[in-house]
Amino acid sequence: MVAASADTARGAELAHNASFLLARASAVASQRDNRALAPLGLKVRSFSVLALALDAQPPTQREIAEFLRLDPSQVVALVDDLESRGIVARETDARDRRAKVVAVTDAGRALYAEARELVADVTTHLDAADASAFLRSVEQLAFEEE
Amino acid sequence: MVAASADTARGAELAHNASFLLARASAVASQRDNRALAPLGLKVRSFSVLALALDAQPPTQREIAEFLRLDPSQVVALVDDLESRGIVARETDARDRRAKVVAVTDAGRALYAEARELVADVTTHLDAADASAFLRSVEQLAFEEE
DNA sequence: TATTGTTATACTCTATAACTATA
DNA sequence: TATAGTTATAGAGTATAACAATA
Q1: CA A87 – CA A80 distance, rounded (Å)
Q2: What is the reported pLDDT for B72?
Q3: Which residues 69-88 on A are within 7 A of strand C at the CB atom?
Q4: Which of A110, A109, A91 is nearest to A100 (CA)?
Q5: Fewer CB atoms inside 10 A, N or C side of chain B?
């Protein structure tokens, strides 16, 4: 595969198209991480839910859905899976009994520690000088207003 | 939505996770571009095929599949759509009569010029100082070896 | 009346295997 | 024997609407 930089190379018109570059980079990264996490029975999605449940203030399913840009109904299935395996537990939110807070169990905490070792640190794949600018930028794009 | 930078904020554990950040940024970007392209009957996918067909050396379907990380069978459907609308045309590759080269028609060239105006320039959404490092990095990640 | 989680459903996207024509 | 495109199909992911419990 040839890089998309030179004007005469394959994909010259796409070389600076954000949607294309992000889609391809995202596919590469999540495919790699899904493979790495497979031995633990996790995917990037379920790993992300687990990571969110570790927040100092555990999130409701609604908050998980917004943060991961998923439909609330998709979060149901993800939490169902993690809960059935004893990795997280649903707890009724004391402040709003409609909402369910997703809390990590001790087993979940241990699993996360293992999983974190398996997912790639993006900066190891980048020129060191560009890494911090990349993280700033991708976070900026990820959390843009609609 | 709160940014994922501070250690006590929502998503602290995910703030530097490449798969998550890239997936979210990719979702934001392609959703925006899909909306922008809708009036022309294009999506990011079909726009990308059209852009590739504009290469100095028009690509075969196989080359399009590799570049966009799609299965060849998905490219069939995308080219079917574009061809039925007179935007591209399949031509048997003279050097290998199994392969089909995807060439842009004059109508396709005109449509692409319109479409290119509609898709967002990523750099307008970034801190100017970070933009070039971001493009270098995301391209590096997008075209990493498996 | 509005919102959270849930279920059901349809739609799109993705992955796989088989077929044909060429190599 | 292997490869490019095609077709069919099944699985995963996504989007929408409706419902019960709660606000």
Answers
A1: 10
A2: 96
A3: 72-73, 75-76, 79-80
A4: A91
A5: C
Helix axes B18-37, A128-142, angle to 10 degrees: 50
State residue A7's pLDDT score: 66
Give per-residue pLDDT as tens, B29-41: 999 999 999 999 9
**Residues across chain A:** 146
pLDDT digits (tens, 9 = 90+) for A100-113: 999 999 999 999 99
Q: Of A86, A88, A93, A85, which Cα lies nearest the Cα of A62?
A: A93
Q: Name which of B23, B121, B130 is nearest A133 (Cβ-Cβ).
A: B130
Compute CA distances B118 → A27, A36, A71, B114, whole Å. 24, 38, 27, 7
Q: Which of B85, B48, B38, B50 is nearest to B70 (CA)?
A: B48
pTM: 0.92
Both tokens of residue B127?
């801190």
Question: What pLDDT score was predicted for residue A89?
Answer: 97
Q: Which helix (H) or strand (E) holds A68?
A: helix A61-68
pLDDT level of residue B24 (50, 70, 90 thresholds): very high
Largest CA distance in chain A: 61
Nucleotide nearest to A72 (CA to C1'): C5
- Inter-residue contact B44 to B30 (CB < 8 Å): yes
- Integer distance in angstroms from CA A93 to C1' C14? 37
